Each structure stands twice: as structure tokens, then as C-alpha cells.
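Hi support team,

I've been running sequence recovery on a batch of backbones for a student project. Most finish fine, but this one hangs at about 90% for roughly twenty minutes before it completes. I'm not sure whether the input is malformed or the queue is just slow. I've pasted the C-alpha cells below so you can try to reproduce it. Let me know if you need the job ID as well.

Thanks,
M.K.
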């Protein structure tokens, strides 16, 4: 029922700011007690959690990316957004948005977007 869809530019030049939006349908981003996350996967590498925004608007960031990462939301559009400043080719990756749900024992990523490819190249 819940669906997430990423949108944004597929190509970026170094030093620019990446902006991606995740549109959620079938559920509200303000519903207790879900967290809404951004995760990326560079080619040939594992998943990297970037950050999240929770149901009340509190944000959390991967310390390695915090200085240039900002997550916000627009509740009227049921969207949350990722901004990553000063991008370099090392930021080339597939970017996913995902929901963190309760799970049976532990919190789990229960819904994912399809992912969107972002390539940073001069």
C-alpha cells in the first residue's frame, strides 16, 4: 500500500548541490512513529545510510555526511527531501528513500523507493 518514489536530477557537476525528493503515497509522513530515511549505494559498494527525518520532523544524519547533508519535509505534499552540497564524483550512487517501520522484533526498512541513479561528473 505504501509507495515511495524518488525524483531529481540524474546528472550533476562537481561542487553543485544535489536535491532529491521522495513522494510518499498510501501513508502520511507524520504518522507515529515512522522514520523516513535516505540511503545510497555507490557502484560496487554497499548501502550507506545518509540520514532520516521522523514523524515529528526531527532529523538525524550519518556523521560522515552531516556537514553537507540536509533533510527536510513538506507535509502538504507528503514529501521529504535530501540536499547534499558540494558533490564530487564519489557521490555517484543509486539513491533510495525508505521507511523505517516497527518490525516484528527490531525496527526495519519496510518500504523502499525504486531508487534513482545520480552521476556526478565534470
Amino acid at each position: 500500500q505504501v509507495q515511495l518514489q524518488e525524483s531529481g536530477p540524474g546528472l550533476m557537476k562537481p561542487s553543485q548541490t544535489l536535491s532529491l525528493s521522495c513522494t510518499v503515497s498510501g501513508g502520511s509522513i507524520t504518522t507515529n512513529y515512522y522514520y523516513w530515511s535516505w540511503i545510497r549505494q555507490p557502484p560496487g559498494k554497499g548501502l550507506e545510510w545518509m540520514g532520516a527525518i521522523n514523524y515529528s520532523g526531527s532529523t538525524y544524519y550519518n556523521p560522515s555526511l552531516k556537514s553537507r547533508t540536509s533533510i527536510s519535509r513538506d507535509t502538504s505534499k507528503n514529501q521529504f527531501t535530501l540536499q547534499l552540497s558540494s558533490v564530487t564524483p564519489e557521490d555517484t550512487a543509486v539513491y533510495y528513500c525508505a521507511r523505517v517501520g516497527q518490525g516484528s522484533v527490531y525496527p526495519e526498512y519496510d518500504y523502499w523507493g525504486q531508487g534513482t541513479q545520480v552521476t556526478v561528473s565534470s
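--
Follow-up from support: It reproduced on our side and the slowdown came from queue contention, not your input. The longest strand covers residues 93-101. No action needed from you.
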